[in-house]
Amino acid sequence: MDAPFEKIRRHARSMLSDAGSHGMDHTQRVTQMCRIIGKQEHADMDILIPAALLHDIARPLEKEKGLLHEVEGAQMAKSYLTSICYNPDLIPAISAAIRTHRFRSAEKPVSPEAKILSDADKLDAMGAVGIARTFMRAAEHGGDIDDAVLHFHDKLLKLKDLMYTDTGRDIATERHAFLVTFLEELTHETDQVSP
């Protein structure tokens, strides 16, 4: 990873747990997906990669204080990037991408980089990884299989139609198909043992 990005990655790691449904492992996958989509969509990586690395840094505050992590995280990223003398012309775009990345954000992404971050974050909730994260999330909230299945219907199955980029749509189509197949098999297996 490029030197300035490595410094930002270390900062993100200091803010997040190593694992969990929104741990550093999620951030690293989202960042890698941003690289893949960003290359195809000709994004400015000096905006996209810092936004990806910092997009969830306020998750612990959301859990602790109920703050919207995308709004708080955008401010935290702005302050941090200013403190390390990151290119000041790019900081507003990075902050905006973080503020608009979330599935439930009221504000929608506008720039190519913000759209790519939003797609990459959603893609990490789909496919095999998305399934694993859904069950982790259910357990983190004291839930069970039924809670995880509810999350599939409330969020995961809707994501394919919410992609902003052509590359994101292509990847989402494949991952969505896997989600549907998994859910059908899970329903079949659980119906077999229902009283």
Could you explain the architecture of this structure?
The mean pLDDT is 92. It is built from 10 helices and no strands. α5 runs antiparallel to α6 (91-99), α6 (91-99) packs parallel to α7 and α8 (127-140) packs across α9. It has a single domain, classed as Hypothetical protein af1432, CATH 1.10.3210.10. It is mainly alpha-helical. The longest helix has 28 residues, at 166-193.
What are the main properties of this structure?
mainly alpha, 0% strand, Hypothetical protein af1432, globular, 195 residues
Approximately how much beta-strand content do the residues carry? under 5%
Mean pLDDT score, rounded?
92
Range of helix content:
55-70%
What is the fold-level CATH name, i.e. the topology?
Hypothetical protein af1432
Supply the number of helical segments: 10
Order of helices and strands: HHHHHHHHHH
| Termini gap | 53 Å
Poorly predicted spans: none
**Name of the CATH first level:** Mainly Alpha
Number of strands: 0
Decide which structural class fits the backbone.
mainly alpha
Second-tier CATH architecture: Orthogonal Bundle
| Main beta sheet strand tally, sense and closure | none
Radius of gyration: 17 Å
CATH homology superfamily name:
Hypothetical protein af1432
The figure for the number of domains is: 1
